[in-house]
Design goal:
By secondary structure, the chain is an alpha+beta fold. It has a single domain (7-301), classed as Roll (2,3-Dihydroxybiphenyl 1,2-Dioxygenase, domain 1). The chain contains five helices and 16 strands. The protein has an eight-stranded mixed β-sheet. The protein has an eight-stranded mixed β-sheet with strand order 6-7-8-5-9-12-11-10, covered by helices on one side.
Length: 305
């Protein structure tokens, strides 16, 4: 049976790219690892943030659309994105966020305590302590390595049909059922990052796409051979996956699961160093070969970062 090892990346929609970079780079301390364009709408940036190696399981990406109407977080969406912070670092993060006038609350789920906050566009974020190996450097002097975010802990899904989404996670994507805690059911994968997926069993608010919402969640596939196997499996189970698309840094396909959340399956290879060396990641605008001829045009219309 095919099994995904967890989250490859998440992609969200926001408004201002400058505010986006300020928050995720300078507040959360993630590294801007790729500055490119939305391949389907290349007049818009596609910004990738993660750890210094741009590893799968650490990557959150954004389409920043200025003046786009604000969305509403709700059903048919990823509702919450969770990040791992090291053991005994919660006090540091609470003080840091308070100093930056970012309100926080706390919640408990599956015997873990989550620090909850929102980014400037209203995306819901959680920080949770877990003991995960880390070989990255601090993103700034303000965040020592012993407190730095390690990568994704997981995500909370707001499905319109939670029971059907449970079936997809367990019997299509191959995740293990971990248990139930109140209004949440948890699934787990074999990876150390991006490995816990919670489904909220009831959510009364209907989601509306727009700024401040997650566009899709992507699951990991090892390579193109496995991605083709995923496509065949999805077709055999009655889904309608897209054709395999070349996203330059990975190959990917997309499908709507039965709870109407947009899922992607993306390959770990070739990775984000295919067009930049690791020390230069995120330092300049990178374009795929089929758009390189329009570089001057894009550089004129895209805001300077």
């Amino acid at each position: 049976m095919l099994q995904t090892s967890g989250i490859h990346h998440l992609t969200a929609i926001v408004n201002d790219p400058h505010i986006n970079v300020e928050f995720y780079s300078n507040v959360l301390g993630l590294k801007l690892v790729k500055k490119t364009v939305n391949f389907d709408r290349p007049e818009v940036y596609h910004l990738y943030f993660g750890n210094k190696q741009a590893d799968p399981g650490t990557i959150i990406t954004f389409f920043p659309w200025k003046n786009l109407a604000k969305g509403r977080i709700g059903t048919k969406q990823v509702g919450v994105t969770s990040y791992i912070i090291p053991p005994n670092s919660s006090d540091f993060w609470e003080r840091r966020l308070q100093a930056k006038n970012i309100p926080t609350t706390k919640a408990n789920r599956f015997n873990e305590t989550y620090i909850q906050l929102k980014d400037p566009d209203g995306l819901e974020i959680e920080l949770v302590e877990r003991d995960v190996e880390y070989d990255g450097n601090p993103r700034s002097e303000e965040i020592p390595s012993e407190y730095a975010i390690r990568g994704f802990a997981g995500a909370v899904l707001y499905s319109i049909h939670p029971d059907k989404t449970k079936v997809v996670l367990q019997h299509v994507l191959g995740m293990d059922l971990e248990g139930v805690d109140g209004e949440y059911v948890r699934f787990k994968t074999s990876a150390s990052l991006g490995n816990t997926i919670d489904i909220k069993l009831s959510h009364s608010v209907r989601g509306l796409a727009g700024a401040g919402t997650v566009h899709h969640i992507a699951w990991r596939a090892k390579n193109e051979v496995e991605l083709q196997q995923w496509k065949e499996l999805l077709q055999a189970k009655g889904y309608e996956p897209t054709e395999i698309k070349d996203r330059n840094y990975f190959k990917a396909l997309y499908f709507k699961e039965d709870g109407e959340i947009l899922f992607e399956i993306a390959t770990d290879s070739p990775g984000f160093t295919v067009d930049e060396n690791i020390k230069e990641l995120g330092t300049r605008l990178m374009l795929p070969s089929w758009l390189e001829g329009k570089r001057q045009e894009f550089e004129k219309i895209l805001p300077q970062l």
